[in-house]
TrEMBL record:
This is ABC transport system ATP-binding protein. It holds the Pfam family ABC_tran. The lineage of its organism: Bacteria, Pseudomonadati, Pseudomonadota, Alphaproteobacteria, Rhodobacterales. Transmembrane segments: none annotated. Residues 4-219 form the ABC transporter domain. It comes from Roseibaca calidilacus. It comes from the Bacteria.
Amino acid sequence: MSLLALEDIRKSFASTEGPVPVLQGVSLSVDAGRVVALTGESGSGKSTLLHIAAGLETPDAGRVLVGGQDMAALPDAGRAQLRRGTVGLVFQQFNLVPSLTVGANLAFQARLAGVHDAGFCADLAARLGLSDLLARYPEQLSGGQQQRVAIGRALAARPKVLLADEPTGNLDEATGDAVFALMLELARAQAAALLLVTHSARLADMCDRKVLLRGGRLA
Ligand SMILES: Nc1ncnc2c1ncn2[C@@H]1O[C@H](COP(=O)(O)OP(=O)(O)OP(=O)(O)O)[C@@H](O)[C@H]1O
């Protein structure tokens, strides 16, 4: 079954010259244990599509199904619960909680979802090279360290659907490759659906499928 299904998604943004269509009928599904790379040039609408998949933005038309459930058909509380328990997000703004340590940030999503596992969290921290930073606060981290915390926070909650927008964009090549491989390994091991945006053809080649967004449609 598709854990994530986007059906004929359309989205325009208002501008002074009138509405600008960004997504013009995008359909995409990601099955359990599969990793799909979303590519496309800057401004092609990749982040917009990911935000819609996450329920953070509403499409003008089309449906988003998570685990077979239509996001728009759920009441706000149900949508929030689905997002908390099922969907993991790694976005370009890392949205770490500034008042919490790295360790508490790593555990944050898992605690919200009611699946916190201290051992798994510690293992993730080690694999992400964060073990020595657990007592620090986000403002005391580099951009790449913050990015790894955001990835760890999402992975620690063992989401069934993981959406990631250039998740290794702030990391050097060797670190980025290792972190990318970890995301793929866990998604496959946990039978999660992973949809990620990447500008790297090399990283996209490591995924099960590559899709290209161009002219508002998937090519
Ligand atoms: N809230 C908004 N209001 C108006 N226009 C927007 C808004 N969000 C995105 N856009 C426009 O929609 C288009 C797609 O933006 P989006 O961020 O989805 O592209 P992208 O493919 O993720 O780009 P990049 O690779 O540079 O991150 C762009 O032309 C952008 O200017």
